Amino acid sequence: MSQDMRFLLLSAMYENGGNVTHRHLDGHPQMFVYPFESQLGTRLVADPLSAMFPVKYRWPVFALDAAPEEDYEAIIDEELKIRTKTPQVSKFRHMPMELSDDDRRERYVRYIGDAGRSRANNVAMFFRATFDAWSDYRRTGKEALYVGYSPIVVVDAPTILNDLPQSQILHVVRNPWSAYADTKKRPVPLSLASYMQGWTFNQYYALLHQRTCPTRVHIVRLEDVVEDSQKALGPICEKLGLESTASLKTPTWNGSVLEEVYPWGTIRSATPEANRATAMELSSEERDAIRARTWQYLDVFHYTNFI
């Protein structure tokens, strides 16, 4: 069953605009768009990158001897599970949503009973069960693919594309100055050196996998999304055989217009002016340090003269 399901998986380094792009895709009539970050990773992910990136953002690894119920619980999916299990503490508690986690799990187990356990089927049926259990999801009847967003998941692109032959990856990149300035607003932010290490690793893998698989790995700049989201995302949709619809112009939640993308991410005002102003919040020393640590990617993404 996973061999026939179509997916678009979004990737972005933290505060690079993955959530902004995700919300602009939300209203597309041909897409099932996951409500929050689709944190598909499990605690069994263990490789050299595990020390750099949280396992919840990685492509999952499942125990060979697990049961479907255990696979379901192993998928971290923190944001949606908190919203469904303990909505009173969810940062999305103000967003209307009728979805029972028990119902979703029961559907998942039933679907895996038909499809069989595998990493590909586990992921595919997790998405299918989510939208089948989401009773107030605004369906159009035209949905043709599933959309998920897991920060930094582009590092696992070869495995994803091999597991799901009908999948595509869209990586979002943002200038490193604005990205770091927004990261500093987190309760416990990464240091400049640690953040830039992650930022450069993400761009390296995105460019590498786009070069090796250009028809299935795509890159878009947040700067282009906030300048004209339909112009930036419309061509991606057309490459997927979908329409470039006017819905791409507006960030939404389950089709309802959002005044700001927060709390999906730290970006509140997704405009070119706000993006540039955010970069200028940094000190001159910070701006110089970032340029020194990201110099090899600034020309590639046309950021050399951003500030």
Question: Can you tell me about this structure?
Answer:
With 307 residues, the protein is an alpha/beta fold. The protein has one domain (7-298): Rossmann fold (3-Layer(aba) Sandwich), CATH 3.40.50.300. It is built from twelve helices and seven strands. The chain has helices at residues 18-25, 68-74, 78-85, 101-115, 119-133, 157-163, 176-183, 192-212, 222-227, 229-239, 272-279, 284-298; strands at 7-12, 31-33, 145-149, 167-173, 217-221, 252-253, 256-257. The strands form two sheets. The protein has a five-stranded parallel beta sheet with strand order 2-3-1-4-5, sandwiched between helices. Strands 6-7 form a two-stranded antiparallel sheet. A hairpin with a 2-residue loop joins β6 (252-253) and β7. α4 (101-115) packs across α5 and α7 (176-183) packs across α11. The radius of gyration is 19 Å and the shape is globular. The termini are far apart. 45% of the residues are buried. The model has no long low-confidence stretch (mean pLDDT 96).
